[in-house]
Amino acid sequence: MTSVNTSLLQKSDGSAELLLGSTKVIASVTGPIEPKARQELPNQASLEILIRPAVGLATTREKLLEDKLRSLLQSIIVRFKYPRQLIQVVVQFLISDSKRTETDLVDYTSNDLNAAINCCYYALIDAGIALKASFVSLSIAVKNGNLTVNPTVYELAQSDSHHVICFNIEKGKANKILLLESQGDIKEDELFAMISKAVEEAEKVHHEQQRKFVKEKVENDYVWKQ
Amino acid sequence: MSRNTEISTNERTYFIEALKCGLRLDSRRFDEIREPQISLSKTEFGYVELDWGLTKLAVRVSAQIGKPYEDRPFEGLFQINCEISSMAWAHFDNSKNSNEEILIARIIEKAIRRSNSLDLEALCIIAGEKVWNITVDLNFLNFDGNFVDVGCFGAMLALHHFKKPDISIVNGGEDIIVHDIDERQPVPLSILHVPICLTYSFYNPGNKESNLKGEDDDEIYLLDANLIEEQVREGSIVVTLNKNRELIQLSKNGGIPISANVLLDLSFKSMKIVDELTELIKKVISKHEKERYEELNLKMLEVGADR
Question: Where in this chain does the entry annotate a coiled-coil region (chain A) (predicted)?
């Protein structure tokens, strides 16, 4: 179950709220704006990425997620288009599905990361930031060779391995892996089988959700042209 | 969008001229607040999304078991996190807290935590050993003025909505069992009173001198200012009251001087709105409780004769 809402924050250039399973996240994109002197890069846009947790203040957990998100967004945003500018991305988790109970010691971050990446896609499109290609992220749990896409935290806990995989999508085809975060035991051939199944799934998400969203958005934004 | 906070002289003059004619840009009355839009979470306790005009806020209350302070063994812990990120407005810096941000956090903290609105002794499980640690996270999503009033209202709403899991003490006070919310009905927090913050912004359409001398009382007071109104204002005061007509806080940090009469007048005027907002919290919560009661068929659980 996925639902997306965009342009809900008036003070940001682009924003999106994504409900994916039982994870709810809101992302805002502001940019290109004037950077602080120490952020400025002479020939490309700098990125400021902030992730805020649903409960409490940001810790090293959020810093790690920020780092993963940064490496992905850095390679997908056309940064040379905005030299000496700043693009601010803030991701706020509203409902997080990373622990089975509040006192659980194990923290499964893959659903959070997955939701954050997908939410950023919609927010970046909403803000009109130039992207080299589309991207789709999937959270996958593998148990006895069976795949579950968008697993719950219980399914993650019982799986043999779980993965967050993000594909670069060009002309409707997934052609590159942008990010792969894996946890648990998995054999090489199983991993390849998982990736090839994920490709189909990602293309499906792209065609059924992202394309539809972008088409509607362009139609609505350019309604004055007709 | 830019981080620039300045507004143009034209805009400013237009706004002041409109005020002189008794008009606000969003056609509210001077003492009218924006209509709050509340959505309470159906699946978990203590999660509230609040739209107050264009100001947007998500509040979450959470509870953990912790150890009390040594000098206060009977009291639970209660904290309010109120960090404002650049999501709300690019003007807020992510790496350092601005004075504005600290002030907002302090005023909310003073209104709720230091006024003892939450019964901390009711949070005690085993004296000196285990207490509930209640945390309120205020996440501001969009800024259109008045974070203080919205934050305070949102926090109180979420505290009313929140329920902590039931516990039992076993082994003669040695251990505790935390019951899952599906196993036993969770218990609401004990809230002693509901503080409501109201912010008035001041404008001086006349000249500075007459204001300083206090010759003529032509200053204008606006309740619940939005962003433009906040940027143009020449001073503000936060009045925190509760339904019992207790004055909890008056906070005026600089700005143009106002006369004591005005202060009394504003406090009196606030009472009506405080009553309305308190009533709104009660109404929304009891409606939500009723829906939940019917949805979960809790009637089935009520055993024994109704006495």
Answer: none
Residues of B in contact with A54 (CB under 8 A): 60, 137
Q: How far apart are CA B81 and CA B105, in angstroms?
A: 8
ipTM: 0.90
Percent of chain B's residues with pLDDT above 90: 70
Chain A residue nearest residue B83, CA to CA: A57
In tens, the pLDDT along B84-95 reads 999 999 888 888
Q: What is the pLDDT of residues A146-199, one digit of tens each?
A: 999 999 999 999 999 999 999 999 999 999 999 999 999 999 999 999 999 999
- Mean pLDDT taken over chain A: 93
Compute how many other C-beta atoms are within 10 angstroms of the C-beta atom of residue A105. Answer: 6
Residue B303, in any domain of the structure: no
A18 in contact with B at a CB cutoff of 8 Å? no
User: Which residues on A lie below 8 Å from B3 (Cβ)?
Assistant: 33-34
Residues sharing a CB contact under 8 Å with residue A59, sequence separation 6 or more, in sequence order: A53
Question: Is the CB of A11 less than 8 angstroms away from the CB of B1?
Answer: yes
CATH number for position B162: 3.30.230.70
How many structural domains compose chain A?
1
Asked if A111 and A21 count as a contact pair (C-beta separation under 8 A), the reply is yes
Q: Low-confidence residues of chain A, pLDDT below 50? A: none
Q: Does A92 touch chain B (CB under 8 A)?
A: yes
CB A22 within 8 A of CB A2: no
Q: Which domain holds residue A183?
A: 2-225
Q: Is residue B302 included in any domain, yes or no? A: no
Nearest-10 Cα torsion for B281, B283, B285, B288: -150
Q: What's the structural domain count of chain B? A: 1
Q: What is the CATH number of the domain that holds A123?
A: 3.30.230.70
- Whether the CB-CB separation of A4 and A122 falls below 8 Å is answered with yes
Query: Which of B1, B34, B65, B231 would you mutate first to test chain A, the one with the most A CBs within 10 A?
Result: B1
Nearest residue of chain B to residue A104 (CA atoms): B64
Q: Does residue B3 surpass a pLDDT of 70? A: no
Q: Given this model, what pLDDT does residue A91 score?
A: 97
Q: Which residues of A touch B87 (CB under 8 A)?
A: 9, 12, 26, 28, 50, 52, 90, 92
Q: Per the CB < 8 Å rule, is A94 touching B139?
A: yes
Instruction: State which residues form the domain around B70.
Output: 9-296
